[in-house]
Amino acid sequence: MKIIITEDYDELSIKGAEIIAEVIKNNPRAVLGLATGSTPIGAYKNLVKTYGLGNITFKEIETVNLDEYAGLGEESEHSYVSFMRENLFDKVDIDLKNTHLPNGKAENLNEECERYSRLVFSHTQDIQLLGLGSNGHIGFNEPFTPFNSLTHVVNLTENTIKDNSRLFEKEEDVPRQAITMGIREIMQAKKILVLASGKNKAKAVYSMVKGEVSEECPASVLQRHSDVMLVIDREAASLL
Ligand code: F6R
């Protein structure tokens, strides 16, 4: 793993966007694996800025997102599809037909997982962006998810529901299930970029980098990938 430690979140966001922009410059038809959550918002802002300066275009870029809440779609401001449109897709020249997320509103979620898994396997990510759960999850692959898991429906842990409730009015409003890309589909990416910021990520960062490779900490599997770039701020790096 290559590790870049930044002073703060702003610097992390600039660095993260630079790494993604570089992939786009090298291959204007790249497949980007994207993440939601608070951490990548700054990187998306900087990416939109870079696009605004005319340095990159998303015209032929394809995207595959990590996850989506069960039951939520475009009509909900809390869905990840809405998040992506608000933070990136509606601000650049990407063709929405080339953007892919699991469909949280599918009638049969298990069939939707199979469809999405096939789609991701046919869209090898040139770069996969990841945030890190405070319990070490990547995507919504919670502790003890098998490393060979494919796209699947997950019951979110209490820990994750609590972490994510800050974005909802009440904790009860947080969906209890989600569809997530599996660890195997994450690991197929040619390059992986992990962003982590703040003290509450320090333990997970430590386990990911220095801990034993174990399903107890899903992110520790990244030690087995040959091209991982970790961009973290001082606070997230404080236990390393
Ligand atoms: C989001 C995702 C999650 C988040 C993680 C960290 O698509 O898959 O794994 O990356 O929960 O979330 P934040 O960035 O909000 O701390």
Provide key terms for this protein.
single chain, 240 residues, alpha/beta, Rossmann fold, 7-stranded parallel β-sheet, 3-stranded antiparallel β-sheet, 10 strands, binds fructose -6-phosphate
Explain what this protein looks like in three dimensions.
The structure is a single chain. The protein has helices at residues 9-26, 41-52, 80-87, 109-121, 158-164, 183-187, 202-210, and strands spanning 2-6, 31-34, 62-65, 67-69, 99-100, 127-130, 152-155, 177-180, 192-196, 228-233. With 240 residues, the chain is α/β, with parallel strands linked by helices. It has one domain (2-233): Rossmann fold (3-Layer(aba) Sandwich). The strands form 2 sheets. It has a 7-stranded parallel beta sheet, covered by helices on one side. A 3-stranded antiparallel beta sheet has the order 4-8-7, with helices on one face. Strand 2 (31-34), helix 2 (41-52) and strand 3 (62-65) form a beta-alpha-beta unit. Helix 1 (9-26) crosses helix 2 (41-52). The chain starts with a strand and ends in a 7-residue tail after the last strand. The site of fructose -6-phosphate has 14 residues, from loops.
The rounded distance between the terminal residues' Cα atoms is: 13 Å
- Ligand list: fructose -6-phosphate
Per CATH, which architecture? 3-Layer(aba) Sandwich
Order of helices and strands: EHEHEEHEHEEHEHEHE
Strand content: 15-25%
Number of separate helices = 7
Broad shape: globular
How many DSSP E strands? 10
